[in-house]
Amino acid sequence: MSAQPRSDAEPRGGAEPLIEAKSLSRVFGHGANTVRAVDDVSFTLGRQEVVSIVGESGSGKSTLARLVLRLLDPTSGTLHLSGRDVTSLKGRDLQAYWRDVQAVFQDPFSSFNQFFTVRRLLNRSLRLAAAGSAERGETLMAQALEHVGLSADVLDKWPHQLSGGQRQRVMIARALMLQPRILVADEATSMLDASLRANILNVLADLRRDYDMTILFITHDIGQACYVSDRVLVMSQGKVVEQGPTDEVIFSPRHEYTQRLLADVPRLHENILD
């Protein structure tokens, strides 16, 4: 069984999308070694919306995230932020974009400079935030840490002195200090145990509620996607094979690939209904 992606890929409420990707593609290699990591992908991301991109390793979801973050240039297609074409931003314009669009990645340990304390790590991010005075910077750091459930005591700790969950919370706080409009969470819970995963998912939900933040959540775990998302996009071999409101994708999957992902989470339907 195969199916075309659902047409209901619009942000909730019918408002103008915050992010709009049109026919994005990214090709690596040449000739016989060509790989279409992202192949003609279009989607929107609305204000205060959580959209999950789900797929197995190699599906293209993380490459798509890097295109949205402008860490990679697309081979073809366009990307718009609030109607503005941001596909080819460079220099200061790109830095300004990164204040609006921040990321939390898979491995919180490798995201740290191991020779920096948490305070120094966060201070470097404050340069991009243009926080102003040192006092203002300290306030931003304390507020961001408090929001992710950490005390200011962690500021003078080294990365190896923190647990995996604490390191990931610091990385979320680092992004939060810039007060971005969009947070891209790329497999942000995949290296954590079950209890820590749930904790980080709840932090992300709080950010949407308390900061009116829009979140693009990248995951191989369709169960996590169901927990946090308004809409789900399912990717396979670089293409979006299915997308739509979370409950429709979960309870009425059209594509065999989506059905297989759901079959790997046998209690998902019961857990949603409980």
Automatic annotation (TrEMBL):
<dbReference type="InterPro" id="IPR003593">
    <property type="entry name" value="AAA+_ATPase"/>
</dbReference>
<keyword id="KW-0067">ATP-binding</keyword>
<dbReference type="InterPro" id="IPR017871">
    <property type="entry name" value="ABC_transporter-like_CS"/>
</dbReference>
<feature type="domain" description="ABC transporter">
    <location>
        <begin position="19"/>
        <end position="262"/>
    </location>
</feature>
<dbReference type="GO" id="GO:0016887">
    <property type="term" value="F:ATP hydrolysis activity"/>
</dbReference>
<dbReference type="InterPro" id="IPR027417">
    <property type="entry name" value="P-loop_NTPase"/>
</dbReference>
<protein>
    <submittedName>
        <fullName>Peptide/nickel transport system ATP-binding protein</fullName>
    </submittedName>
</protein>
<dbReference type="Pfam" id="PF00005">
    <property type="entry name" value="ABC_tran"/>
</dbReference>
<keyword id="KW-0547">Nucleotide-binding</keyword>
<dbReference type="GO" id="GO:0005524">
    <property type="term" value="F:ATP binding"/>
</dbReference>
<dbReference type="InterPro" id="IPR003439">
    <property type="entry name" value="ABC_transporter-like_ATP-bd"/>
</dbReference>
